């Protein structure tokens, strides 16, 4: 509460909304000026910018570069901000007790896992040139469906009640070894 007060939280929230709005407006403004004739079906699971650019009947090289720069800036900027915040947390842990460090590292470990699972595919999709690969659809499904499904699972596995329920469900005894990893007794 000493670092994150309501005003700081509101500023971060407003910054996120404004950043997302500006990012979206730039991409829509770039695509709306293109001419489209012929096939109107994209080879993708959802209407993403790069597949829409493939349908345009004009040269989209410059638009593709700007879209990649725009998306890359948002993706890389968010990732760098997260890395800086985790670095500040890790540096501040030097002054904490062993138990406080363990709890903070446990929470940060879950957060970092989710960040990597999300930003890995996003980096593959949006921080590269305007080319389409056969893997794009699989990667898109991963970061739009699989990652949000894994997110609650990653966080609930830290809950003691969930661990007990899993023990009962699987009929196995799980235990923590030194508070860091899972152990299984069959």
Write up what this structure looks like.
By secondary structure, this protein is mainly alpha-helical. 68% of the residues lie in helices and 5% in strands. The chain contains 6 helices and 2 strands; from the N terminus they run H-H-H-H-H-H-E-E. It has helices at residues 6-32, 49-55, 61-92, 98-126, 136-156, 160-170; strands spanning 173-177, 181-185. The protein has a two-stranded antiparallel ribbon with strand order 1-2. Strand 1 and strand 2 (181-185) form a beta hairpin.
Task: Indicate the radius of gyration in whole angstroms.
Answer: 22 Å
Helix fraction, binned, reads: 55-70%
Give the oligomer, counting copies of the same chain as homo and different chains as hetero. Answer: single chain
Query: Quick one: how many beta strands?
Result: 2
Give start-end ranges of low-pLDDT stretches: none
What coarse outline follows from CA principal-axis ratios?
globular
Element order, helices and strands?
HHHHHHEE
In what range is the share of β-strand residues?
5-15%
Q: Could you give a short account of the major beta sheet?
A: 2 strands, antiparallel
In spatial order, strands of the major sheet run: 1-2
Mean pLDDT: 80
The termini sit apart by 44 Å
Number of helices: 6
Based on helices, strands and strand pairing, what is the structural class?
mainly alpha
Main location: membrane
Subcellular location: Membrane
Keywords: G-protein coupled receptor, Membrane, Receptor, Transducer, Transmembrane, Transmembrane helix
InterPro entries: GPCR_Rhodpsn_7TM, Olfact_rcpt, Olfactory_Receptors
